[in-house]
Amino acid sequence: MLCSWRVRLKLLLATITLAVLLSWLYLFVGSLEYGRFLLLPPCLGEQPSRAVEREALASQVRRVEEENQQLRIQLGQVQAEGSDGSPQGGASAEDGPPIGGERNNRTACPKQRMVHKCELLHVAIVCAGHNASRDVVTLVKSILFHRKNPLHFHFITDSVAHQILQTLFQSWMVPSIHVSFYNADDLKAGTLPPLHPPHFLTQLGTWRPEVSWIPNKHYSGIYGLMKLTLTKALPSNLSKVIVLDTDITFATDIAELWAVFGKFSEKQVIGLVENQSDWYLGNLWKNHKPWPALGRGFNTGVILLLLDRLRRLGWEQMWRLTAERELMSMLSTSLADQDIFNAVIKQNPALVYRLPCFWNVQLSDHTRSEQCYTEVSDLKVIHWNSPKKLRVKNKHVEFFRNLYLTFLEYDGNLLRRELFGCASLPSPPSDQLQQALEELDEDDPCYDFRRQHLTQHRVHLFFLQYEFLALPNPTDVTLVAQLSMDRLQMLEAICKHWAGPISLALYMSDAEAQQFLRYAQASEVLSARRNVAYHIVYKEGQFYPINLLRNVALANTQTPYVFLTDIDFLPMYGLYDYLRNSIQQLELPHRKAALIVPAFETLHYRLTFPKSKAELLSMLDMGSLYTFRYHVWPKGHAPTDYAKWRTATVPYRVAWQPDFEPYVVVRRDCPKYDQRFVGFGWNKVSHIMELDAQEYELLVLPNAFMIHMPHAPSFDISKFRLSAAYRGCLQTLREEFHQDLSRRYGAAALKYLTAERNL
């Protein structure tokens, strides 16, 4: 603290001195002779010439400017070392305890290499599964919020996390961010041969599984050991990296932590914070026997690794031999990689650089984390390393929880900010999008529609646990739909009506996505299902991107067939089995066809759902059910031929007609929805038209039905009804769609334009 104020005081005095000297110089060489006369009275005797005076003062100004610049550098170093004046790196391994002790060593002003604002910082994270993929987003948000440098994230992932995070970062399009993925399955590959103890590993020639041979009791499982393999997993030309757990939250710029590498001695290769619990002291319970550790041991939630030095030291051989030796008596790890890291450091204490504990404030029960901070400004990194996570017991847990929730619900779109003064990393998709946006005419009456079409939405696939495995059943079918927050109440009902797999795209803000998560986890119906895939498409723009949502849900199905519906419809009981049987009976794998499920509606919020076609016809005759939209948009479903359906016992073919928009079952590789249609109008009509252009047969199923449930009108349909400009733009988009259809399908598409004109 004293160091910081001393430098600030020097800088202030130097600034004042410089200001006075500049004033003198101005008065000497400027045109203010009267000012010069006042400042240099003639009673001083013979005065030097003006040229001599000017040269002397200029020399003095240069000298003070140089001193001023040096003081600014010192002040910048002090600020980078921490707001409380403490050095970033803390004490070395020989400097004493890092908890509480580092505050006694703050009067010195150690030299520290600063991080250039355009220096690329490398961060490695192990991430596996749906839940960890969701948690890591909050960590990334906290880093992006504070960062001022380009970043390269290195993710060691399983196939699930790879798909989720790759899609997320590609759609997020954050400037100056690069992402690389490494297959965790390759690192854990191999199984220890029967009867072979661990020490045989080094004698098995080329067969060398990485970590799968290590028994681990920690809840992180096999992936909790992956950090041991980073010297091999990461590129050989990568010299250093910050390694983070997924349950970390940053409260400062990660460049401050990166700068600590400059404080390592020649022998130090690993930067760690001391463990803040008593785990490695072995006194938590009777017969508690932890792995060997230096003192309290170290926590591996935040690690600084000098990869090039570790490789030269033979890190892989070092940790393997240590693990083999300790497993002879310990039999398994309790805290995954942390046990092995500590065992290595116990044998080689000179390898470790002790980070101050504010770089890893560990919020597990009964820790000494409160000794790491006295003020909010002391906090750098918060680590939710208890299995209880946000429910952990801590004196200030409410503050920490609020900080975490801030980033959890923070709008990720706001983090798409440029780093000025740094050359951006190459990003062809981003460049193409920017060029397309620049080509738009802002005076175009339909500019907002066209811009919405080009909007790049963040997409988080498989937001919740998804365990459905597509069986080799060539007739299996997935229900595909999209929704927003105001239709959330339909989910439980649909799950009760449809037992098969479901793929849903949900249009939500970051905060709404967390509300949905809590809703789904609290629902007995939804939490019991593992074959429902929820894909979050984050809100951006003024229109509902309905066809983008449909395409996201459609693209992430795993069955050969899909049932394309809307969230407001309840399928008849048993429809899943009926559709699979129909696909088989109609030999759909060998023909190009779309199966139509007739749509009905009720105006009553409470409905005794019909259990059969006979019951539905009775309700239709009694007036409690209607054919869908017969009173406001009859031509949308009239081609289904409801009169014929009443008595039909076998599927029958119908012809395409203008504005026909039935709900269909088709192959998964069907045409995508046209994403130019946003909001209300023509979003399904255009899709059915393209199916017909591709010569799909339209077959109505005789014993299938679905019922639309009533709801308040959407915001987009209200705009359609009230705005002539909205309807005019929709007509423009329809005409452009017809032109595109003609280019793709030639003369066969002329009938659609002719039919439109006849209307």
From TrEMBL:
Keywords: Glycoprotein, Glycosyltransferase, Golgi apparatus, Manganese, Membrane, Metal-binding, Multifunctional enzyme, Signal-anchor, Transferase, Transmembrane, Transmembrane helix. GO terms for molecular function: glucuronosyltransferase activity; metal ion binding; xylosyltransferase activity. Signal peptide: none annotated. Pathway: Protein modification; protein glycosylation. SUPFAM superfamilies: Nucleotide-diphospho-sugar transferases. It catalyses: 3-O-[beta-D-GlcA-(1->3)-beta-D-Xyl-(1->4)-Rib-ol-P-Rib-ol-P-3-beta-D-GalNAc-(1->3)-beta-D-GlcNAc-(1->4)-(O-6-P-alpha-D-Man)]-Thr-[protein] + UDP-alpha-D-xylose = 3-O-[alpha-D-Xyl-(1->3)-beta-D-GlcA-(1->4)-beta-D-Xyl-(1->4)-Rib-ol-P-Rib-ol-P-3-beta-D-GalNAc-(1->3)-beta-D-GlcNAc-(1->4)-(O-6-P-alpha-D-Man)]-Thr-[protein] + UDP + H(+); 3-O-{beta-D-GlcA-(1->[3)-alpha-D-Xyl-(1->3)-beta-D-GlcA-(1->](n)-4)-beta-D-Xyl-(1->4)-Rib-ol-P-Rib-ol-P-3-beta-D-GalNAc-(1->3)-beta-D-GlcNAc-(1->4)-O-6-P-alpha-D-Man}-L-Thr-[protein] + UDP-alpha-D-xylose = 3-O-{(1->[3)-alpha-D-Xyl-(1->3)-beta-D-GlcA-(1->](n+1)-4)-beta-D-Xyl-(1->4)-Rib-ol-P-Rib-ol-P-3-beta-D-GalNAc-(1->3)-beta-D-GlcNAc-(1->4)-O-6-P-alpha-D-Man}-L-Thr-[protein] + UDP + H(+); 3-O-{(1->[3)-alpha-D-Xyl-(1->3)-beta-D-GlcA-(1->](n)-4)-beta-D-Xyl-(1->4)-Rib-ol-P-Rib-ol-P-3-beta-D-GalNAc-(1->3)-beta-D-GlcNAc-(1->4)-O-6-P-alpha-D-Man}-L-Thr-[protein] + UDP-alpha-D-glucuronate = 3-O-{beta-D-GlcA-(1->[3)-alpha-D-Xyl-(1->3)-beta-D-GlcA-(1->](n)-4)-beta-D-Xyl-(1->4)-Rib-ol-P-Rib-ol-P-3-beta-D-GalNAc-(1->3)-beta-D-GlcNAc-(1->4)-O-6-P-alpha-D-Man}-L-Thr-[protein] + UDP + H(+). It comes from the Eukaryota. It is a single-pass type II membrane protein. Its cofactor is Mn(2+). GO terms for biological process: protein O-linked glycosylation via mannose. Residues 79-106 are annotated as: Disordered. One of its GO terms (cellular component) is Golgi membrane. It is found in: Golgi apparatus membrane. PANTHER family: GLYCOSYLTRANSFERASE-RELATED, XYLOSYL- AND GLUCURONYLTRANSFERASE LARGE2. In the N-terminal section; belongs to the glycosyltransferase 8 family. In the C-terminal section; belongs to the glycosyltransferase 49 family. Bifunctional glycosyltransferase with both alpha-1,3-xylosyltransferase and beta-1,3-glucuronyltransferase activities involved in the maturation of alpha-dystroglycan (DAG1) by glycosylation leading to DAG1 binding to laminin G-like domain-containing extracellular proteins with high affinity and in a phosphorylated-O-mannosyl trisaccharide dependent manner. Elongates the glucuronyl-beta-1,4-xylose-beta disaccharide primer structure by adding repeating units [-3-Xylose-alpha-1,3-GlcA-beta-1-] to produce a heteropolysaccharide. Supports the maturation of DAG1 more effectively than LARGE1. This is LARG2 glucuronyltransferase. The gene is Large2.
